[in-house]
Amino acid sequence: MQVQAEDEGQGTVAAPPPVETAPAVEAGFAAFLAQLRARALAEGVSARTLDAVLPTLSFNPRVVELDRSQPGGNPASTAPAARIPAFAPYRARHVDSARITRGQARYQALTPILKRIEAETGVPAPVIVAIWGHETNYGSYTGGFDLPRSLASLAYEGRRRELFTAELIATLKLIDRGVPRERIKGSWAGATGHPQFLPSVYLRVARDGDGDGRADIWGSEADALASIAAYFVDAGWRRGRPWGVPASAPPFLDRQAIAGRLEPPRCPRVHDRHSRWLTVAEWRARGVVQTGGPALADDELASLIEPDGPGAPAYLLTGNYRVILDYNCSNFYALSVGLLADAVAPAS
To answer: Domain Transglycosylase SLT spans what residues (predicted)?
Structure first.
């Protein structure tokens, strides 16, 4: 899960300005922490936690540099937008044989836990495993940045102050709940644990999957997998429906006539690449046919995406695809999660 989604429509990013580390920055950072303390107390963080954590924090210019180097991270950039890159190379990197093989092995080893979670939530076990594989390669790398320091630095920098301040306060609440400070490490942008949850997401959906009374997404695979499923339920996953299926679109398809008509409030570039919703029967009448996966009912609503353009592989997407996008608003990410899930799933 990422604070800034991968937007496959972004262009080249200009070099970000250098991050200042002058004494004035240190003084400003200290003043920011003093203001934060008052807000955190008002939002229920204990004085004990604040006294233990805030004096240990220092400004980390590295995380600000990383944030500014993200696509869209430099507001002053005037670089022209590049053409949309191809999906096929991304798929080759993220749905590769090593990730598939390891995913199959983890699926087999954890089948009883996964099947229980699937039965309870309706989220397919292969999809849960695929998210885990994409986020941290099945827990093999979860990030080494100290979240309180990273989030405090990003909040102080100010470009997205409210977002990162809220996540810092959520992190302090995790410590209040008994999560050890040394355990709360992750990406520079604040994603943590096997599922790479932001702290606020942990507070909202983290679940105890092994019955020990704690939701330990850092050390318990069962807890991490149960928490991923809980996120999907919270985002609206519909039981018994696939994320989508591969399809073939004819060259004569009138793509202007099927263009999307919605204006989503979030990630419009990502949703611009989807067609409008039609039933499977309506797609078939236009020459679009399913070429694999579980058979979709004629009255199932689906949208079409051709990530590499006409003549390349296409996909009919159900509403559950939008749930994967909620985890990370990138078509390349969501398609790769779905394809990895299909590859990891045991043969029926």
So the answer is: 29-342
Q: How far is CA 299 from the centre of its chain?
A: 30
AA identity, residue 209: G
CA-wise closest residue to 302 among 315, 313, 293: 315
Residue partners of 169: CB distance under 8 A and separation at least 6: 36, 39, 40, 43, 45
pLDDT at 60 over 80: yes
How far apart, in whole angstroms, are the C-alpha atoms of residue 114 and residue 123? 10
Q: Using the structure block, give the residue that is written with the tokens 């993220």.
A: 94
Looking at residue 197, the DSSP 8-state letter turns out to be B
| Backbone angles phi and psi of 221, in degrees to 5 | -65, -40
**Better-scored residue on pLDDT, 83 or 250:** 250
Spatial contact of 45 and 172, defined as CB atoms under 8 Å apart:
yes
pTM for the full model? 0.90
CA dihedral 131, 111, 345, 219 (to 10 degrees): 20
Task: Note the pLDDT of residue 71.
Answer: 59
Cβ neighbours for 346, distance < 8 A, ≥ 6 positions apart? 104, 107, 108
Length of the chain as a residue count = 348
Q: Residue 278 half-sphere exposure, CB side, CA atoms within 13 Å?
A: 20
Confidence of residue 260 (pLDDT cuts 50, 70, 90): confident
**Please, are residues 243 and 274 in contact by the beta-carbon 8 Å criterion?**
no
Q: Residue 303 forms beta bridges with which residues?
A: 317
Q: Residue 113 is encoded by which pair of tokens? A: 């836990």
| Distance, CA of 297 to CA of 292 (rounded, Å) | 14
Delimit the domains of the chain by residue range: 1-85+148-181, 244-317
pLDDT value of position 12: 43
